[in-house]
């Protein structure tokens, strides 16, 4: 046995075994806190809850039929899809524009970077209270600006037509600065000789961005898209702090309704079924992004 581990084949096995041992702690945490909870949630979604002395019983997909017949769940799912489709590209574009602005030589560059990044450092409760002041129908800053132009005020968070978009604005404002850091890091990894060559060839800034910078930023964009998607579907604290799902469930998002179903209504099987739907949505979106963007991604 000692001679086997000194042979070339044994050395390869020893190296692989050493690598697996290094991965083992992370693998244990991944299985314990990610895969096992997902499987346990899948199991719970297929059973009815226990009532008193009546044990839980297997009901198959009845819980899934129940949640899809729930009007509030369907509205929460639609709200969340709309929320993701608007906030993700908006935050991405704004983050890229901010990164391009502070990547060039300019006075106060460090201050500008700090100002752009600062919203992402604030706790969500502080962010929510700040924007509640802006949206307040009595003394809110937005209504004061409208009043200055002679326009009538608006109950921004009290109207179903505007409440969800107000939450979207807060999310974009908070996340764009965080995503800017990744784009800024990606821009600074691009070889400066490429921009010098482009200037020599007479290429303008837009052409250089479209043909050089944007393709080289695709790995960063893919990373940001995955993180932005997860953020868009796991938001709950902002909803609780600002609207609590109202008015008329117009700002009820999927994770908020799962939380409400599990800990306010104590319907754990239905909450588990909703969680599996959420995992399916996130997995599908991630798979589509990798399928569509991986072929257009170049790694330096």
TrEMBL record:
In the UniProt record, the signal sequence range is none
SUPFAM superfamilies according to UniProt: MetI-like
Q: How does it sit in the membrane?
A: Multi-pass membrane protein
Keyword entries, A-Z = Cell inner membrane, Cell membrane, Membrane, Transmembrane, Transmembrane helix, Transport
Query: Which cell locations does it reside in?
Result: Cell inner membrane; Cell membrane
Q: Per the annotation, which location comes first and is thus the protein's main one? A: membrane
Q: Where are the transmembrane segments?
A: 17-36, 83-102, 114-134, 162-185, 216-236, 256-288
Boundaries of each ABC transmembrane type-1 domain copy?
A: 77-289
Question: Is RNA-binding among this UniProt entry's keywords?
Answer: no
Q: Which domain of life is it from?
A: Bacteria
Q: Which Gene3D superfamilies match?
A: MetI-like (1.10.3720.10)
- InterPro entries assigned to the protein according to its UniProt record, in alphabetical order: ABC_transporter_permease, MetI-like, MetI-like_sf
Which family does the entry's similarity section mention?
Answer: Belongs to the binding-protein-dependent transport system permease family.
Q: What is this protein called?
A: Carbohydrate ABC transporter permease
Which species expresses this protein natively? Tatumella terrea
């Amino acid at each position: 046995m000692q001679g086997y581990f000194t042979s070339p084949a044994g050395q390869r096995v020893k190296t692989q075994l050493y690598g697996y041992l290094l991965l083992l702690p992370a693998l244990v945490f991944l299985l314990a806190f990610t895969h096992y909870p997902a499987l346990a949630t899948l199991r719970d979604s297929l059973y009815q809850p226990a009532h008193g002395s009546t044990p839980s019983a297997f009901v198959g997909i009845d819980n899934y039929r129940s949640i899809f017949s729930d009007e509030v769940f369907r509205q929460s799912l639609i709200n969340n899809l709309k929320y993701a489709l608007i906030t993700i590209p908006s935050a991405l574009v704004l983050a890229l524009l901010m990164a391009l602005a502070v990547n060039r030589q300019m006075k106060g560059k460090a201050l500008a970077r700090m100002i752009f990044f600062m919203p992402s450092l604030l706790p969500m409760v502080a962010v929510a209270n700040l924007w509640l002041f802006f949206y307040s129908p009595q003394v809110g800053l937005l209504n004061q600006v409208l009043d200055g132009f002679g326009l009538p005020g608006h109950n921004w968070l009290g109207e179903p037509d505007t409440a969800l978009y107000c939450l979207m604005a807060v999310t974009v404002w908070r996340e764009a600065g965080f995503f800017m850091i990744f784009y800024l890091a990606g821009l600074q990894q691009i070889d400066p000789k490429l921009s010098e060559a482009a200037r020599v060839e007479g290429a303008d800034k837009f052409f250089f961005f479209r043909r050089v910078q944007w393709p080289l930023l695709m790995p960063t964009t893919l990373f940001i898209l995955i993180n932005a998607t997860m953020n868009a579907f796991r938001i709950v604290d902002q909803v609780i702090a600002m609207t609590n799902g109202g008015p008329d469930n117009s700002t009820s998002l999927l994770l908020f309704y799962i939380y409400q179903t599990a800990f306010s209504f104590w319907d754990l099987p239905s909450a588990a079924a909703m969680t599996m739907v959420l995992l399916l949505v996130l997995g599908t979106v991630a798979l589509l992004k990798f399928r569509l963007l991986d072929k257009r991604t170049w790694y330096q």
